Predict the 3D structure of the following.
Amino acid sequence: MATTLQRSSQLTMADLKGKVDPDWCPGCGDFGVLAAVQKALIELQIPNHNVVTISGIGCSSNLPGFINTYGMHTLHGRALAVATGLKLANHALTVLVTGGDGDGFGIGGNHFLHSMRRNVDLLYIVMDNQIYGLTTGQTSPTSCIGMKTKSMPFGNIEAPVNPISLALAAGATFVARGFSAEQKHLTELIKQGIEHQGFSFLDVFSPCVTYNLDNTYQWFRPRVKKLEDDPAYDPADWTAAMEKSLLWGDEIPIGKFFERTDVPTLHGAEPVLNEGPLVHRDPRLPLDVARSFIEELM
Amino acid sequence: MKQTFAIGIGGAAGQGVATPGDIYARIFSRRGLHLNAYNAYQSIIRGGHTFLTIRTGPERVSNMGDRIDLLIPLNQDSMNRHLGLLTAGAACIYNADTIQPGAVGSGVQLCPLPVSKLADITRNKIAQNTLAIGAGLNMMGIGFGALENVLREQFKKKGEAVVAENVGVARAGYDYASSHFKPFPNPLPVTENRYAILSGNMAMAMGGAAAGVKFYCAYPMSPATGVLHWMAAHARKAGIMVRQVEDEIGVINMAIGAAHAGVRSMCATSGGGFALMSEGLGMSAMIETPVVVIDCQRAGPSTGVPTKTEQGDLWQMLGAAFGDYPRVIAAPLDIGDCFKIIPELFNIVDRFQCPGIVLCDLLLSEGRLSVDPKDLDFSPPIDRGELITRANGAPSEVAANGAYKRYRITESGISPRAIPGVPGHIHTVATDEHQEDGVLISDEFTNPIKRRAMMEKRMRKVVGIEAAIPPPALLGPRNADVTLIGWGSTKGVIGEACEILSEQGISANQLQIRWLVPLHGEAILDILRGSRHTIIVENNYSGQFARYLRSETSFVPSSYIRKYDGEPFMPHHIVEAVKEQLAGRTKLSVPTHEIMV
């Protein structure tokens, strides 16, 4: 069963401003991600009381506090599990999950994997800065080999996770990558990810200006190439997406790698939800149903 | 002394021990008899040894008892293990072709069945089981019709030929017994009552459905898996979203996510899975989203003995997750109570917006009991507490001026909870410490005054919870020689031990604790002040409840009875221990379990 996005017509940037201003370091990539999320919601005109922004723990996971939607700032690595439960209990809500690379690919790796194969209908935005920031600069699951951090002062010797190929292999039905300095492009990807019915994964290069002095804005700018600029690229082609996902170095693709729309969402595949969101149901069982449960035991 | 009759059926896993058990259980319940069944088994799918005890009688049967009246060993191993348990008046029915009996006590009747002469064993692989069922039924003085009806239901899917075959074999066993074996002296009566037979896991799942649970998730783990199985099988009929999750960390977080959206949400596990859930439990407390977690205790530590019972998780529950926060812990007293306790606990955790734990154990989870259907109330009171939903609207002036504060500081500690989707109440909840409107006070706004106020707000709820749960009451005569103190699943066996002690001239009463946290310490002390000799009985090594009671009340009992071999107490274990303690021989008794499984 499809979730129909509820639209409003007066949502403005002022409505989406959080109770407090972000306390990220000046220049942090996360500012760009927050702005793009707000712009996407305004362009889509989704009433903010029907949006729930859910995060784990880390610099980027503070995002729900900086946007005026319903929000949950949960445990380190657990945002996707919480979001899955919330979506299944009220599938009329638009669910955004935001967090960092350590939160999502490290401590939360198991939930990441299983949420994708379940095709839970939500947009998962990872602000990927290839470093642990809030704990003051340690190696992350996406840190490049050789990168020196406080936890690996002689250089990282562990190969990084490739989030895009991982998502493709795990069955995510929408896989994209953005760059926080490419606002319009990122906003468009967020809009598409929200509108996609199923699990939308959006990895965003969101540079850490304090602790990652390797993968900076200057490092990314000449390298990122938009998939949308290649008219021959077909995001319905999984194999092509997998090939593109392996590119890293002088050319790093951003944009929509892959989308398929023929897989039912988790809430759509479960007949229990056919009658509408669980949260609006009567808690009482019909008496004949209750009676039948007892009769089975007699 | 009340009339009971107990059957022990032993065999290898996969040999069909459960089927004769189910057949007898159905026959007894249709005669209006109570029953209690306990299956002692091993973590093995085929082979090994399993021993099922079914005890029945016209009055409530609360535990497996001390005595086996009829033993049906399905293999030599079972004969060797259990024949020695039989005492005068008992009988043993066995396949004379394949099993050799050993020495028996005086007055024990050996009932060999010439299986290959009575049935075509090349065609019917379970002929020995069916013959034994028939023979046993005859000796209990029950008419064959009862068995025929059950066999018809059991085999009807396989066609009339299979039904006729099995009824014929059962009949042969029944008739053989009437001409060769001596019947039991007191035939089981018939009553007008009708009971439901269910396990504690089924009861807790059904209790959840009755409480209005709309979301259930779990990772399979013995002995809690039965809750998942009932939920999954009945999900569509009951309108419950049931999910199997990748691990218990995912389970608790998913359950809390659903609860946060506004539905009643529940999950179940055993000690190992619960260990993974503890951080999530703290989240439930901190964001003040209620959730119910069932812990079905098994013998620990670590993987422990997955198929054996214990009351060894109490301190894990008391200490689960770091920091101070309000929690509720309840231990069901029997299988019927497994049903009742769930709606009661949900009402409390909904009102006080905190996590609730059901501390069950394998004995109740996997045991079976006859329960009066009237005690399975699918219309219990439902109190969702101060919940603001789309349906019940919102205090409009608060909504309009943006003044809604999710964590408003109140005298009761309870802050009205709006669920996502309700206009005018937008807020973000956080596992970081926060101020009234939800804004974090962990980062740039740390503030010791606000932190203290928020901590005190949450903890004030404890006072309300304590007032909402009833204090325990003394069972039995006020003035007794000995007071036995237990908690949770030991209610039945301690109760029967008290009856036996009274018959032997030692008056005994019982204090059974159901609500562990908060603990009504003063009420407990008031009761125990009047006791002459107090004994704490529990299924663990270190006396976890005794240590907890002491930490809360400074109370130290006269002595202790503990068992930690994986098997439940039998009444005589407690009776003998009480006698040796009253005689001053010891302050700590650890009974030896005689049934080897």
